[in-house]
Amino acid sequence: MTTPRVLVTPAAEATIDVLRDEHGPLMFHQSGGCCDGSSPMCFTKGEFRVGANDVWLGQIHGCDFFMSASQFEYWKHTQLTVDVVKGRGASFSLEIPLGVRFLIRSRLFTQEEEQNMAPVYDGEEYLTRPMEA
User: Fold this and answer.
1) H/E element holding 42?
2) Per the record, a Pfam family (predicted)?
3) From 86's CA, which of 12, 41, 48, 116 has a CA 20 to 30 Å away?
4) What pLDDT is stored for residue 90 in this prediction?
5) Torsions phi, psi of 71, nearest 5?
6) pLDDT 10s per residue in the chain (133 long)?
7) How far is 50 from 78, CA to CA, in rounded Å?
């Protein structure tokens, strides 16, 4: 079984459902910048342009999850879990008006899990790859 690189909590799934109902298809990006830039940010799908300097880590609750390549270098040995907590971040992420914010919880992969890692793609490669049947 392939080890997923990114997971999502039920609470975050519920928030994604609310946002999807209002905004349509969604995507996530984590830049690794300072302050709130290091939190996962939720956008309407396609609103945030990804490219070769971004890495696609997988999908959470039907949403693509990207991370800046430089940040991925720090996090590539960890499994990320997107969660949501009460509070207001200072970002442009779609959940902010709901009075909540997404955050990352992480843990190191085991050696066994690292043997079966899910593939990653750079943003351009992911967006231009042939769709899987």
Assistant:
1) strand 41-44
2) DUF779
3) 48
4) 66
5) -70, -40
6) 899 999 999 999 999 999 999 999 999 999 866 555 568 999 999 999 999 999 999 999 999 999 999 999 999 999 999 999 998 876 789 999 999 999 999 999 999 999 999 889 988 888 787 765 3
7) 22
At residue 128, the 3 state secondary structure works out as: helix
Inter-CA distances, 108 with 5, 83, 85, 114, 129, Å: 10, 17, 22, 10, 29
pLDDT of residue 133: 39
CB of 66 closer than 8 Å to CB of 28: yes
Instruction: Tell me the CA distances in angstroms from 61 to 69, 83, 112, one per residue in order.
Output: 22, 12, 25
Residues 53 and 30 sit within 8 Å (Cβ to Cβ): no
For residue 11, which phi and psi values (nearest 5 degrees)?
-65, -40
Q: What is the DSSP letter of 118?
A: P
- Evaluate if pTM is beyond 0.85: yes
64 phi and psi angles, rounded to 5 deg: -65, 140
Rounded distance between C-alpha atoms, residue 41 and residue 71, angstroms: 14
CB atoms within 10 A of CB 127: 16
